[in-house]
Design goal:
Blueprint: H1 3-8, H2 19-32, H3 47-57, E1 78-80, H4 82-85, E2 86-87, E3 99-103, E4 119-122, H5 123-126, E5 131-134, E6 138-141, E7 152-154, E8 162-165, E9 169-174, H6 181-189, H7 191-198, H8 212-217, E10 220-222, H9 225-269, H10 273-279, H11 288-301, E11 315-318, E12 323-328, E13 344-347, E14 352-353, E15 356-357, E16 363-365, H12 367-372, E17 383-386, E18 395-397, E19 406-407, E20 411-416, H13 422-430, H14 432-439, H15 452-456, E21 459-462, H16 465-508
Helix pairs in contact: 2-6, 2-9, 9-10, 11-16
Length: 511
């Protein structure tokens, strides 16, 4: 399959995760293994090329023996290394008063096709303690995470053709016409080169660097100069196509987001069955998380269902007025080391998740430990709310078989009175009305926390019990639809990812 055909099928795998970035990676990898270019007989007529390969074939390339050639290349190409093609340790010798370009790491681009930016300095300011380079030199970041992010560039249009910059660069300066600097850059930006280089990095975490031996001595695939130029032109063409595809994706995402907002607003203003269908329309591509938030908001606002004219009205109450207990527990002395393999369950924040109780990680206490926490004994239909840390705000109803369990200091029991259904209390606490309040909470120097006093003051809009039941039933019905939609979207993305893998395999397999 031709690469143009592959790009023509973009709409078939546009939903694959990171589709366009993966296409960019593919283009670069294909460029350096010969899959993007033709082998022309006239390419071998270049005198400089013939002289170079004649000399090279009479001696071994000096590439690093720790890095064997990573893939097959065409017979007319040669494995070399950058040290065969020029200098990888360079210094400039010019007058101190000369105006030059200065390039800090922040101005080295990560993407392909982007030029390095620079600041103007005098040579005397930057000639010491900085890396030297000149027009036509190829530079590559050697420190993490800049190396992994493919920060590299061919230096062009430097002030007076000379520059200096961050010390965290490797530099290649060609000494032969058989190498096109832009082709060298393509290879340095391939994911394969970066991945292999990661395993060779040295130093401590956060300060790891690619050694000079890897940059200068690792195997480099070298086509004839004329073919290099065709490859660079082809890569430029295909990257421009990727740019257009990415722009189309962004335009489509913006349009879908506008449609999604409009459909959510339409349903919020008039939550009718007809408008509900718009929320699940394929064209609107509403995120399931946004759907859940909208449905929960409407539920606690009393807009999810028409009001029953025979029922009493809604009223707003403080949460302390419709609960019989609000309180959290503690961790036994000795911490995790004191937990038992069996006994009285201790519910921790990891067990409390939106939409359900998670049994994985459940801890157990002996009778003596449990007795010290008897005031936070879980009863059937208690609502559990995480009140600290990264999981603050997660809420679920305790399952029946957890009756008699205890909770630690990160979990609060919110026990409903007869005036509120546990399921309605749970949906209230899970709604954006409460979650937005929780997001604003910042108590303590290092972590977020909810206190009993805060929870007690939450205003809960409370309908009669009969209407609570109707709302909960409707909510469960709609959430089941959202779950089905989320499953469908995940399956669609997985299918798109597999399709992309198949297309890539077809493209890269031998003819």
């Amino acid at each position: 399959m031709k690469l143009e055909t592959f790009f023509g099928k973009f709409d078939q795998f546009v939903d694959a995760p990171d589709a366009v970035p993966k296409m960019r990676e593919l283009v670069l990898e294909l460029a350096v293994n010969g899959s993007l270019s033709e082998r022309l007989a006239c390419d071998q007529d270049d005198d400089a090329w013939l002289e170079f390969i004649a000399e090279l074939d009479h001696r071994l390339s000096s590439h690093d023996p720790a890095s064997p050639p990573p893939f097959e290349i065409p017979e007319t190409w040669r494995w070399v290394c950058l040290d065969n093609l020029g200098k990888t340790k360079v210094r400039n010798d010019i007058a101190d008063g000369t105006r030059v370009s200065f390039v800090p790491m922040a101005l080295i681009p990560a993407g392909y096709g982007l030029a390095a930016q620079s600041e103007e300095r005098t040579w005397s300011e930057v000639k010491k303690a900085f890396t030297h380079f000149a027009d036509g030199d190829v530079v590559m970041a050697k420190i993490t995470p800049c190396f992994e992010n493919a920060k590299s560039a061919v230096m062009r249009k430097l002030v007076n053709g000379i520059g200096a910059g961050t010390t965290e660069l490797h530099v290649f300066r060609q000494s032969t016409e058989v190498i096109v600097p832009e082709f060298a850059l393509i290879y340095l930006k391939t994911q394969g080169f970066i991945t292999r280089g990661e395993s060779r990095m040295t130093g401590s975490a956060g300060q790891k660097r690619v050694p000079h031996s890897y940059f200068a001595g690792s195997p480099f695939p070298l086509p004839p100069p004329a073919e290099q130029k065709r490859i660079v032109a082809k890569v430029d063409e295909l990257m421009a196509l990727c740019d257009r595809l990415e722009a189309q994706q962004q335009e489509g995402a913006t349009r879908h987001a506008a449609l999604a907002r409009a459909s959510l607003t339409r349903f919020a203003d008039a939550p009718t069955p007809a408008n509900l269908e718009f929320l699940f329309h394929d064209s609107f591509d509403i995120a399931p998380a946004d759907l859940r938030k909208s449905i929960l908001t409407l539920a606690v606002q009393g807009l999810l269902l028409p009001h029953d004219p025979e029922s009493a009205g809604w009223e707003t109450r403080k949460l302390k007025e419709v609960t019989t207990k609000i309180g959290s527990g503690s961790t036994p002395s000795g911490g995790r080391d004191s937990y038992q393999e069996s006994g009285v369950p201790l519910i921790r924040s990891m067990n409390v998740h939106f939409g359900g109780f998670v049994r994985h990680g459940l801890a157990f206490l002996n009778e003596e430990q449990a007795e010290k926490l008897r005031n936070v004994t879980v009863q059937a239909d208690d609502v559990l709310l995480n009140i600290t840390g990264a999981s603050i705000g997660r809420v679920t109803t305790a399952p029946n078989d957890m009756e008699g369990a205890r909770v630690n200091q990160h979990v609060c029991i919110v026990r409903p009175s007869a005036a509120v259904l546990p399921s309605f209390l749970e949906l209230f606490l899970a709604s954006p009305v409460v979650q937005d309040l929780i997001d604003d909470v910042q108590v303590g120097a290092t972590r977020e926390a909810l206190t009993k006093a805060m929870i007690e003051q939450f205003d809960i809009p409370l309908p009669p019990l009969a209407e609570q039941r109707r709302i909960v039933a409707k909510l469960e019905q709609l959430m089941a639809l959202v779950d089905a939609l989320e499953t469908q979207l995940a399956a669609s993305r997985a299918t798109a990812a597999k399709l992309m893998e198949a297309l890539v395999a077809e493209l890269t397999s031998p003819t």
